[in-house]
Amino acid sequence: MTAQQDAEAVSFATEFLKKIIRIRGVKIDRKTFLSQEFKRTGVSEQKISEAILETPIEAGIEPKILDELAAELIAFETKKSASMSFASGLPGGFGMVAAIPADITQYYVHAFRVMQKLAYLYGWKEFLNDLDNVDDQTLGLLASFLGTMMGVAGAANSLTTFAKNIARPALQKHISKKALTKTVWYGPVKQTLKLVGVKITKDSFAKGVTKAVPLVGGVVSGGLTYVSLKKQANRLQMHLRKNPPPSRDAEKYLQAFSELDKLDEVNLESDESATRSLAGRTLNAGNSALNVATKGILAASTGIGTIASKVWQGKKAD
Question: In the chain, what are the domain boundaries?
């Protein structure tokens, strides 16, 4: 691609993403989301309030609960996205945003929903506020999350850099915002935007082709959406677990998940040991039963042989 084509792809993706986040239902209210999810799992009101004010880990909510909720919300959003994608893959499906096929639009809708939910669950503060006036920093952060999901080179590192060097220090003091192009993490952001711009163009053409056969078009749309979004959401979750959010106690966060992972390893080893032990006991029991059965058969055979011999001897005497 030429420099001009790169610039056009970045510009197109920027405007597209700005329109996506303005769609009703895309923005997740952090306070409402955390409150509803934690109440459902039996977390106390005090801990919920602390989680909203600070972070779930700082509030003392077990990391295992966060992982379980993350798995549930990923399953919910991906299934919902896939079913909508199937419907919009049929002729006359949902509407369009900036002349983009509806299933591509709703794919990014759910990508933004799942990234916000995962981020808030693992301790990030709300980052979608003024939807009508998205600043460079917010756009860059969204692109970094999206790039991490899509596996764009450097995106995950840029997200970590933002949390460590920009958002976390901002908790202690006010830091003036720089233009996006002047930030150290603009490189991966630009790559993400370029990828999104090119991908939308190519996917739009491909979607038009698959719609030539209605049922096939629907199946392809739904299937690809489910597989790709689920994989990308899982990738983001793994990144968030291993990299602290912009909070005051990063060490506590890392320690909490480290202890959970160690416990899981111990439980896994214990389960494997129990499985081997059960298999051994089952094998021994089977061998014992086989030995008993074999002895019974041999005894029966011996008895039958003795009787047959006596009968034969009796016939000879006659």
Answer: 3-248
